[in-house]
Amino acid sequence: MTGVTRRGLSTDELAARVAGDVPRGAFVNLGIGLPTRISNHLSPDSGVMLHTENGMLGMGPEAQGDIVDLDLINAGKVPVTELPGASYFHHADSFAMMRGGHLDVCVLGAYQVSARGDLANWHTGRSDDIPAVGGAMDLAIGAKQTFVMMNLLSRDGAPKLVPECTYPLTGVGCVSRVYTDLAVFVIEDEGVAVRELFDCTFDELMRLLEVPLLDRTREGDR
Amino acid sequence: MTGVTRRGLSTDELAARVAGDVPRGAFVNLGIGLPTRISNHLSPDSGVMLHTENGMLGMGPEAQGDIVDLDLINAGKVPVTELPGASYFHHADSFAMMRGGHLDVCVLGAYQVSARGDLANWHTGRSDDIPAVGGAMDLAIGAKQTFVMMNLLSRDGAPKLVPECTYPLTGVGCVSRVYTDLAVFVIEDEGVAVRELFDCTFDELMRLLEVPLLDRTREGDR
Amino acid sequence: MVSILDNPAEAVAGIPDGATVMIGGFGTAGQPVELIDALIASGATDLTVVNNNAGNGDVGLAALIRAGRVRKIVCSFPRQRDSWHFDQKYRAGEIELELVPQGNLAERIRAAGAGIGAFYTPTGYGTSLADGKETREVDGHHYVLEYPLRADYALVKAHRADELGNLVYRKTARNFGPIMAAAATTTIVQAEEVVPVGALDPEIIVTPCIYVDRIVRVPAPARAPEPVGAGQ
Amino acid sequence: MVSILDNPAEAVAGIPDGATVMIGGFGTAGQPVELIDALIASGATDLTVVNNNAGNGDVGLAALIRAGRVRKIVCSFPRQRDSWHFDQKYRAGEIELELVPQGNLAERIRAAGAGIGAFYTPTGYGTSLADGKETREVDGHHYVLEYPLRADYALVKAHRADELGNLVYRKTARNFGPIMAAAATTTIVQAEEVVPVGALDPEIIVTPCIYVDRIVRVPAPARAPEPVGAGQ
Asked: Considering the domain boundaries, does residue C134 fall inside one?
């Protein structure tokens, strides 16, 4: 990022913005990568409980130093800690919890999100890539709400909110909100609504994206 | 039974006979009713572990007096005890254990068994009966081997080992052995084989039953 | 987030007429009698109840049936020596019965909680309880297609709960509690003890708190003694 | 009945060439390294391995792959920063990959142990990983038909075993152990401790002994430190 004039939210600002939309007491899975940062912005008294798909509810922050326990890791295989009230369960039970719609919110990174809420985040589609899906497809479709957290543009400037995903899909019509450095989008039945703008106007956003947008920036959050 | 001339094995003798065919260390479910008596004939050093479908492995004898605990019952809802090495699990896990073929032996009572090993033991088929199936259908098809323990003739003298069941089926082709007061039968691909006779000759048995029988009484147990 | 309520009446508040209610327990072991009593007192009627049985004696589920609040029961073993209230309603045509083999009942409840759309089970294949159901042969074995069984509410009895809603059970009273807690939109628990967060070892929690919505402490739950040999 | 064996070599004895072997663990947590080392030493080859990943670093599953013993791997997340042995074999066309979404992998293993013939899962619907698979709409939701995943052997790492074979695990090292133990014909366990029968509380046993065939005590299991951020 150094040396580049950037606008919009920084990653940490964006993480804080997403955290602000996580309801008190929610059960949440934060996908590996960027969404993990959201946990830094969830206050302990929010009552939010984090799920990690490798078999734990009530996950605490990353473990450091002496408390690292290699039997206690998150989905990204990083050593973590256990909060009071945590519980452990096996993989079938953990994915039953996800698939069964018990998590309130799941936040994932993405390569692309389509105007209908299709998600592409597991495979670039390049033929020389070794495919690996992990729990991405379960996370995409399992939670009551799936949020995406990503930069709106790829490194080469291509919009990642698109009319149709060109990358291989992770899930169909599963994304409800897209949090980006430049705007917050809500996928509605009528189309993609812009709820909030960061250092960017609605007109600029319309020029950046090929997706028809509804201007909902003046409406209160709901 | 009093006053009636009976031949063949008594219920307890029959229970002991079945117990003799339960392999050392086997995991066994004994259906409610007659088969429950088999547990009295399994020696503690046999290593046999009893499963009860309401969520326990390692069930001990019936509880009496002060040790009765109404949270610890068997499938017949009789208070029982816990043996060292017991474990508890919920109903889906318990029936997964059964359906998944992990029990070595299940012993059930029966209204009828057909020559192909079909079992009828859950419903008389009378229209005024309130139907109740419980775990009968799961038990019938789940274990590695399903044994039936019954009297060969009904109270009105009708044979209960029949060419085709006339009572509603519990399971199709699921019975491998039938232990009765008069004989032990093995359901084989070639037909019903008589392995052992009690106060009864093979010819008498052939006259009693409409099922073609193979005489295997002179072959060693296998 | 769980609500810890002061009494069973508050715990069952809002269960509407016509609701589908799962009730834990196998016979009386694990049956949440105080929650059922509160449900009776609430006046809710036209209920569909999911339970392994159809009531024992005169208390709990039996009393709910006697009070005429159950339109339909989904269960595996209604007929027991002490199921007289069900028997009477059934013979009078006043209660509908959906009879499900016990393992299919458990797996259908589990499937609802686990987000499974349907599954093929060997149990019941070739029997009258599979009449009209789709079947399939897989690797030479025969299966019946069964669908998930969901509920609006689950009433569950646990041994201990912590203040977040994590649960442990006692012995065979565990039975249907964990799967019903996961299969219902709203899960209401009566626990003998409610302990502080952190008092339950995370390794031994059977029902994680995500499945629990309301808790009420019932320190000495009532129960009719189980008649011996009451049937499966 | 369980056999308690003196060393990992005896524990894995008899695994033939061509066997399907489930190996527990998520990354290195729960990975039974000593059993895998013994499997390598046994010479068994042409194996089909079921694991969440495809090896980390140079030990355990990674070493088995490096040794060329794995014909095919069924997993959800092969590519990690430290999966170099798999990557090399895969790019060289020397290992076959069946990629399964993690929850479908877990549910397929669970279905094998639970005697379910097949099930409909929403996971993967509409994606390339469901290409060619049967689908069905139930209540307006779309599902893909998936089949059970069985194995000849499971290699599982537990925390404690009792002398009957009942198991408890430690923290997130539990992961695939319980379901793999139930899905394999023969389940082989390495446990840090083997305690007398009765020493484990029946309420906290995670894997009942019916699922366990062989146990070997490995008091201080080896493990490569987990590289930070190695991927899902």
From this structure: no
The total number of structural domains that make up chain D:
1
Dihedral sign, CA of C42, C44, C45, C49?
negative
Q: Distance between the two ends of chain D, CA-based, in angstroms?
A: 37
SS3 (DSSP) at A126: coil
Return the sign of the alpha-carbon dihedral for residues C57, C60, C65, C68. Answer: positive
The ipTM value here is 0.96
Give the range of the structural domain holding residue C90, as residue numbers without chain letter: 3-115+149-217
Fold annotation for A11-215: Glutaconate Coenzyme A-transferase (3.40.1080)
The amino acid that residue D170 corresponds to is: R
A195 touches chain C (CB under 8 A): no
Residue C182 lies in a domain: yes
Q: pLDDT band at D225, cuts 50/70/90?
A: low
- CA B125/CA A4 separation, integer angstroms: 81
pLDDT of res. B128: 84
Classify residue C168: in a domain, yes or no.
yes
Structure tokens at D218: 């490995």
Report the share of chain A in percent with pLDDT over 90. Answer: 89
The residue ranges of chain B whose pLDDT is under 70 are 1-6, 220-222
Residues of chain C scoring pLDDT < 70: 224-232
Nearest-CA distance from A103 to chain D in Å? 15
Query: Do the chains contact at D198 and B84, CB–CB below 8 Å?
Result: yes
In a domain, C59, yes or no: yes
Which one, of B90, B84, A94, B75, lies nearest residue C169 by Cα?
A: B90
Whether the pTM exceeds 0.95: the reply is: yes
Cα of first residue to Cα of last residue in chain C, in angstroms, is 37
CB contact under 8 A, C129 and B133: yes
Q: Which residue of the set A53, A82, A164, A190 is catalytic? A: A53
Residue D108 maps to which CATH number? 3.40.1080.10
Q: Smallest CA–CA separation between B40 and chain C, in Å?
A: 17
Structure tokens at C152: 């609006």
Residues 6+ apart with CB under 8 A from B109: B31, B32, B33, B34, B35, B121, B148, B149, B150
Structure tokens at D189: 């366990």
Asked if D107's CB is within 8 angstroms of C116's CB, the reply is yes
